[in-house]
Design a protein that fits this description.
The chain is of the alpha/beta class. The protein has 15 helices and 13 strands. The strands form three sheets. Strands 3-2-1-4-5-6 form a six-stranded parallel β-sheet, with helices on both faces. A five-stranded parallel β-sheet has the order 10-9-11-12-13. A two-stranded parallel ribbon has the order 7-8. The longest helix has 32 residues, at 200-231.
């Protein structure tokens, strides 16, 4: 198997799949498949609600076809699966989207076909979970009639600098020849180059530890933030001082949500426990990060009480609900946990976000997006996400959104000078 020719199918057209389909479509025919008919309809008219691909880029990808009809996939020999891999309410891996995608591919898979998975999974999942489904629905035999590859996604939503082609790609295949072919396929579009892993399992493990490592580093800084608050010192002051050493890692405290960092470690810990090892460090980091949104809410409430406010009769404005700045992605947003904590105290919460889609917020979380303005002032303001709109705001502009003599400003991302905020009349909390 020297190279992978023919039509490419991309299964799942979200933040990962769409940029991939568009890039491949610059060179060859691509069929982009998604079960969401509304998503297909918007792509067909040249619109991407995730904002990862511009209208001009969509129109330029003339070799791409977007469809919700699986019958069109029968003409393909290469299938790239980019569906979500979330966790359930008990933080256990939810493999259903991956299984359903494998069923779809299995129904159209023919001899010589190659199925490449990009979805984040635990080491061994491709061969243990996906391959049996492909065999069952295709009637073909793995590594005889069809083959698999694994090339983990490294998309960073909202990042317009580190885009798909500029990030080195890990590749792998179920046989040495397939590994070479998969590597060659991605080399045709990835200008940053590729790294060919020694096996599917190694590639799977590499992906899942990328975000686990980042999760643990942020958890450490979040825990330090909690300690420093009790010691009466500012976390950012400490980090800036420590950062004067050349090898100090520049992590900041914050809320850890999204589709990767707050989810992927649970895939690794699930597999670890399956093979008889209870991971302690990884799960400790997860507990810390999962609790930070409630920690912010409780400290805001504490300052409101200290300022003499009748909390159940107060209004709190939350600025930002996406999981990261300058991006409409709301998956696993920890700001929602913060809102729930405020509501548990009987507080009226007003949520605003210039990037989020109001219908999506209501559908996913049952929350209404609103506007925080001087006509309806709040008693406390939480700047939860570092959108440019908030980053460029002045403290005077924030102050007019608040009523009373001692409003609380919870500056989660440390966007504002805390001394200037105090002079503007705020009681300040920040991580």
């Amino acid at each position: 198997m020297k190279q992978l020719d023919g039509v490419i199918a991309v299964i799942g057209l979200g933040y990962v799949g769409l940029p991939l389909a568009v890039e491949f479509a610059k060179r060859r025919k691509v069929i982009g498949f998604d079960i969401n008919a509304l998503r297909i309809a918007e792509l067909q008219v040249g619109k991407d609600c995730t904002l990862e691909v511009s209208s001009d880029e969509l129109k330029a990808a003339a070799n791409a076809i977007y469809t919700a009809d699986p019958a069109l996939l029968k003409q393909c020999q290469v299938f790239i699966v980019t569906v979500p891999t979330p966790v359930d309410t008990a933080n256990r891996p939810d493999m259903l989207p991956l299984v359903r995608a494998s069923e779809t591919v299995g129904n159209v898979l023919s001899k010589g076909g190659v199925v490449i998975y990009e979805s984040t999974v635990y080491p061994g999942a491709t061969e243990e979970v996906c391959v049996p489904v492909l065999e069952k629905f295709s009637g073909l035999r793995f590594n005889q009639d069809f083959f698999c590859g694994y090339s983990p996604e490294r998309i960073n939503p909202g990042d317009k600098a580190n885009t798909l082609t500029k990030i080195k790609k890990i590749t792998s295949g179920s046989t040495p020849d397939v590994a070479d072919a998969v590597d060659g396929l991605y080399k045709s579009i990835i200008t940053a180059g590729t790294h060919k892993a020694s096996s599917l399992k190694v590639a799977e493990a590499a992906k899942v530890i990328e975000n686990t490592q980042r999760d643990l580093n942020i958890a450490l800084i979040n825990e330090l933030s909690v300690i420093f608050a009790r010691l009466g010192i500012d976390t950012l002051d400490v980090l800036e001082a420590a950062g004067s050493k050349w090898n100090f890692l520049p992590f900041r405290p914050g809320l850890v949500g999204g589709h990767c960092i707050g989810v992927d470690p649970y895939y690794l810990t699930h597999k670890a426990e399956e093979v008889g090892y209870h991971p302690q460090v990884i799960l400790a980091g997860r507990r810390i990060n999962d609790n930070m949104a409630r920690y912010v809410a409780r400290n805001t409430i504490k300052l409101m009480l200290q300022n003499g406010m009748d909390v159940p009769r107060c209004r709190v404005g939350v600025m930002g609900i996406t999981f990261k700045e300058n991006c409409p992605d709301i998956r696993n947003s920890k700001v929602v946990d913060m809102v729930r904590e405020f509501q548990g105290w009987g507080v009226e919460v007003v949520v605003a976000d210039p990037w989020a889609d109001a219908k999506e917020i209501e559908h996913e979380y049952g929350l209404q997006l609103s506007v925080i303005d001087a006509a309806h002032p709040v008693d406390a303001l939480v700047v939860a996400v570092g959108h440019n709109e908030y980053r460029h705001a002045t403290l005077d502009e924030l102050r007019v959104l608040c009523r009373g003599e001692k409003p609380v400003l919870a500056d989660v991302k440390s966007l504002f000078d805390r001394h200037a905020a105090a002079l503007a009349g705020f009681t300040v909390f920040r991580l």
